[in-house]
Write a structure and sequence with these properties.
The longest helix has 18 residues. It is built from 24 helices and 21 strands. The strands form seven sheets. It has a five-stranded mixed sheet with strand order 1-3-2-4-5, sandwiched between helices. A hairpin with a 5-residue loop joins β4 and β5. By secondary structure, it is an alpha+beta fold.
């Protein structure tokens, strides 16, 4: 027997198709059923790679007695947060407001209009650590719905009304002083011992590091007569260098297979939460390529192509944390397992090299692999890594969430373009082109961008702001990586659609379109989370398009959206890293660099110098191109490849020497 989720496209929903719970997908039919039966709606939100979602499913949703009670007293709705980020955003805001914290699995109980009157995250199957069991909570809620109906409905109505109230945003300007102050604020939160920001759990701060990279580059160009700033480039650089090294050497990074886990459960990057997310690896891939961590960038790109690329050319969303029902089992090692895979001598050497001890750093005496220092014999290191990778291949692999999310594929395209151009790896750019073409062929339907596809078939859910912004940015990066003007045209169509249907009255954007399904409130996330907010991603896309086209409309929209984010950037720079990175580039530009010349060593040298300019928009073309406004009037100089450095379409004299560039 299966439930309604058997017809879903989401791998997360399909994980629950055999539950005895009579699940519904989100939609008007579920709420109509709740009205007809006069029962509340139980909303359960999670995602396929979520460890605690699996735990709650095994404990409660697979239990026949629990399921029978849920079916009798609730209409039960299951939502994939990655497929419906709008639904997740609305009810996560409610959960955080009602409980003071959030997370997944998220459980909310709603009235017939979608207003929540109860919210929480994971609930155990038995009472423990002072927490009631899931069944106790269900029983109390079902009783309250019947015996205190007026009180419950009044509370739900008030909470719903509260969620609808969106106060005026603290708009302003992000100035050079704002950026300096952001670095000073970040320095106070920097972990001087283990790097990164804050304590455990510790997430990879890719967007903040990107801001610091750009800040360091700008500050290093300040005129000598300017007084040194307390938060000068050297401070930013130290935070970037230390964090990039610590993340790449710790257990957060897969030392033998490449790629980063979602976060570290400790402050020292030793033990990760083992799920591997596309959005993390896409962003960190580009960051390490720009920072100069070529080996890490290359291994991460290879991980994407080997383990997340789908047969259609897109990139799957995630790899699970668990295998055989045990978190981290695929990735952790004991000294004995190393000896079994490598032999006595190499096994002992690997245990020392990768910090694998008898006591273990993880569970059951096993250890994550860390490479806290490079061994003297790098050839031996590469041979050991190869053999461990082959041995690990015989283990049961974590499951893969193979849905293709438009926004995250946009991020992957951008990361692969950065790695491909900076590392001179054309195969990465080719993979990015194929992913871009999949988005065009499958996700663009009748002029609309749809969010998710699977097995080459697009789902029914509309794209949200982050989809439009990240895909447009990916298309613009494909233009810069390939020179193919079709990507410029495609990005322009997406941005114009976003300006028409997502714009807010204050100059920023809503997360959903004006004609999208109406929820109890129209979500509008300002802060970056593990991936850029739609707002900050849109600033980057608009500013890049304006730099290429000279469009004042797009530049003004970028500036107005940045103003909406100014208050957040001042108060909490850790959660505005991507907006700050855009502001760094827009403060003086961004730099617009055109390299014109016939292919060859001279042009290659100019191109590499141009692409090393953090935050610059770079086009590399053969002579005679004028199909993009930035290219008009740009040509070789005396028959030699030349580079033009421009700001707001006004260029300095062309140079032919990479050092002068």
């Amino acid at each position: 027997m299966t439930n309604r989720l058997a017809d879903a496209t989401s791998p997360y929903l399909l994980q629950h198709k055999d539950n005895p719970v009579d699940w519904w997908e989100w939609g008007t039919e579920a709420f109509a059923e709740a009205r007809d039966r006069n029962v509340p709606v139980l909303l359960s939100v999670g995602y396929a790679a979520c460890h605690w979602c699996h735990v709650m499913a095994h404990e409660s949703f697979e239990d026949a007695e629990t399921a029978a009670y849920m079916n009798a007293h609730f209409v039960n709705v299951k939502v994939d947060r990655e497929e419906r980020p709008d639904v997740d955003s609305v009810y996560m805001s409610a959960t955080q407001a009602m409980t003071g914290h959030g997370g997944w699995p998220m459980t909310c109980v709603l009235d017939h209009d979608g207003n929540p009157f109860f919210a929480g995250t994971y609930f155990p199957d038995t009472p423990r650590h002072g927490s009631a069991s899931f069944m106790q909570i269900l029983d109390a809620l079902a009783d309250a719905w019947v015996t205190r109906a007026d009180e419950v409905r009044q509370a739900a109505s008030e909470i719903g009304a509260h969620l609808k109230v969106q106060g005026d945003l603290d708009t302003g300007l992000i100035t050079a002083e704002t950026l300096d102050q952001a670095v000073r604020a970040l320095a106070t939160e920097f972990d001087g011992q283990s790097a990164g920001f804050g304590g455990a759990p510790k997430f990879p701060p890719g967007m903040v590091l990107e801001f610091l990279l750009r800040h360091e580059a700008r500050v290093s160009r300040r005129s000598p007569e300017l007084a040194p700033q307390p938060a000068d480039g050297s401070v930013a650089k130290r935070m970037v260098d230390a964090t990039c090294v610590a993340m790449a050497r710790g257990g957060l990074y897969d030392q033998i297979g490449g790629g980063f886990a979602r976060y570290s459960v400790d402050s020292g990057w030793v033990v990760p939460h083992f799920e591997k997310m596309l959005y993390d690896n896409a962003q960190l891939l580009g960051l390490y390529a720009r920072w100069g961590g070529n080996r890490i960038a290359e291994e991460t790109a290879d991980f994407l192509l080997r383990e997340l690329r789908t047969p259609e050319g897109g990139f799957a969303s995630a790899l699970d944390a668990d295998s055989e029902g045990v978190e981290g089992k695929f990735y952790a090692w004991t000294p004995a397992q190393l000896v079994e895979a490598l032999g006595e001598d190499d096994g002992a050497w690997a245990a020392t090299t990768f910090e694998v001890t008898e006591a273990g750093t993880f569970e059951h005496g096993s250890s994550t692999l860390q490479l806290l220092r490079d061994p003297d014999d790098l050839v031996r290191l590469e041979d050991v890594k190869r053999r461990l990778f082959e041995a690990r291949a015989s283990r049961v692999r974590p499951a893969r969430d193979d849905k293709v999310v438009a926004a995250w594929n946009g991020l992957a395209i951008s990361g692969l373009c950065a790695a491909g151009t900076l590392l001179r790896k054309p195969e990465y750019v080719e993979a990015a082109v194929r992913a871009g073409q999949l988005l065009v062929d499958v996700h663009l339907v009748e002029g609309r961008l749809l969010r998710v596809s699977r097995d080459g078939l697009v789902g029914r859910h509309d794209g949200v702001l982050e989809d439009y912004a990240c895909v447009a940015s990916g298309f613009l990066d494909l233009l810069q990586a390939t020179g193919d003007g079709v990507w410029f045209e495609r990005a322009g169509v997406l941005l114009d659609d976003a300006l028409a249907r997502f714009r807010a009255d204050d100059g920023g954007f809503h997360d959903t379109a004006s004609d999208a399904e109406a929820l109890i409130t129209r979500p509008r996330e300002l802060s970056d989370n593990a991936s850029p907010s739609g707002q900050s991603a849109m600033v980057h896309a608009l500013a890049t398009y304006a730099a290429l086209s000279g469009s004042g409309t797009h530049r003004e929209a970028a500036e107005q959206t940045l103003a909406v984010l100014a208050g957040l950037a001042e108060r909490a720079p850790r959660f505005a890293g991507w907006a700050l990175a855009a502001a760094e580039s827009m403060l003086e530009g961004p730099d617009e660099i055109v390299v014109v010349g016939r292919p060859g060593l001279e042009r290659d040298q100019l191109e590499l110098a141009a692409r090393r300019r953090h935050g610059a928009v770079v086009l590399v073309v053969e002579p005679g191109r004028d199909d993009i406004p930035l290219l008009v009037g740009r040509d070789e100089v005396d028959g030699a490849p030349a580079a033009y450095v421009c700001r707001h379409m006004v260029c300095e004299r062309p140079v032919t020497d990479p050092a002068l560039l």
